[in-house]
Design goal:
This protein has eleven helices and eleven strands. The protein is of the alpha+beta class. Strand 9 (311-318) and strand 10 form a beta hairpin. The model is unreliable at 6-23 (pLDDT under 50).
Length: 367
């Protein structure tokens, strides 16, 4: 299981402390949403779910239901850590924007400008791909590395450079400028950030995002302690039954999707995209640049028009095949809607999407 996980992103174009030390969430809960989650878990046979509505001031309401691990009686709570999968990509883009703001790199900076030593090792098709093309999935790089688990003996920054060299030796199979969703592209962007700062992506994320936004529960990889049910476990179906796992994708893939946090801390990041909020980390112009799409994808966000959102809506989903999250942001409404589950199968997206719709309807009924 450990070596077969691949981060996926689905549906972009439908487009005080607790006992385990995590931060409690002092926000009102709502029985109607809790009842919805309980009913959905029972009907769809899902281990656990969490849902939240946020605005520029933070979490308006949040509920959780179900269990942390099949076969246990430990309840999934609103303060539990949730694996965010590809929703990490918007965080990586925001991190990169802080480096751009400081003049350490530009959105037009090319791969070989940062790594001139790779010029003779990678195909010329990739010499001039730039940072913005990478985060908007228009750099023409493969969707994933041939093997994310190679080079385990190398330090993480060196490992990612080795991944670039190993996967960009052949001509691109994607037309120049064509949208092609790529986890490898985000790893490359993260590696460029590492090179210009001589600091790992993980350290940069901690210092420039998590610490600055007060995301004290944010981290990387598997939530919780191995072998212990102190946090939720991920689940996948096998012969119709849920099996619990503590596994994640390779560390090398990090910039594309290995962050975990509580929903309340994730909300602190999501609220950056709500214009009613006071800009944090970056000014509003730089934040707006991150949601300016090329086609229907911006820097870590799907961007579509929705009548319920009164205009532009941002969305993304993420999964490492045993967790799933989805978020929709409506800037004109000063709202975001978030759903997560500690499981994934062929029905997870549609079930979670339905919950998003219920959250939107619930919120609008209260206006």
């Amino acid at each position: 299981m450990k070596k077969s996980l691949i981060i996926v992103c689905l549906g972009l174009l439908f487009f005080s402390c607790s006992d385990d030390g995590t931060e409690n969430t002092p926000v009102p809960t709502n029985n109607e949403i809790e009842d919805l989650l309980i009913e959905t878990i029972a009907e769809e046979d899902i281990p656990g779910m969490i849902a939240a509505i946020i605005d520029d001031s933070g979490v308006r309401t949040i509920e959780a239901a179900g269990i942390r691990k099949v076969g246990s009686s430990d309840s999934l709570t609103v303060n539990d850590l949730i694996h965010l999968g590809s929703c990490t990509k918007a965080m990586t883009s925001t991190l990169l924007a802080t480096l751009v703001a400081e003049g350490l790199i530009t959105w037009e900076t090319t791969l070989v400008e940062v790594f001139p030593e790779l010029q003779d090792s990678i195909h010329e098709d990739f010499h001039d791909i730039n940072l913005h093309q990478l985060v908007t999935h228009r750099a023409g790089v493969p969707a994933n590395a041939k093997d994310w688990w190679l080079f385990q003996d190398l330090e993480i920054k060196e490992r990612r450079v080795a991944m670039i060299k190993d996967n960009l030796t052949e001509a691109s199979q994607i037309a120049s400028g064509e949208y092609h969703y790529s986890n490898l592209g985000y790893m490359i962007a993260g590696s460029m950030a590492e090179k210009v700062t001589n600091t790992s992506w993980e350290e940069l994320m901690q210092e420039r995002l998590f610490d600055q936004l007060g995301m004290s529960t944010a981290g990387f990889g598997i939530p919780g302690t191995i072998g212990v049910i102190d946090q939720p476990w991920g689940h996948a179906r096998n012969n119709g039954n849920w099996n619990a796992y503590q596994a994640d994708n390779s560390e090398a893939l990090g910039p594309a999707g290995t962050v975990h946090s509580t929903f309340s801390d994730w909300a602190k990041f999501i609220s950056l995209q709500l214009p009613a909020s006071e800009p944090a980390i970056l000014n509003r112009d730089r934040l707006d640049y991150l949601i300016d799409p090329v086609g229907q994808y911006a820097s870590g966000w799907g961007v579509v028009q929705r009548s319920w959102a009164k205009g532009t809506a941002l969305n993304h989903s993420g999964s490492n095949t045993i967790w799933f999250v989805i978020v929709w942001v409506a800037p004109e409404l000063n709202r975001a809607f978030m759903v997560g589950t500690n499981s994934y199968d062929e029905n997870t997206f549609s079930v979670s999407d339905r919950i998003i719709g219920e959250l939107i309807a619930f919120d609008q009924s209260r206006d």
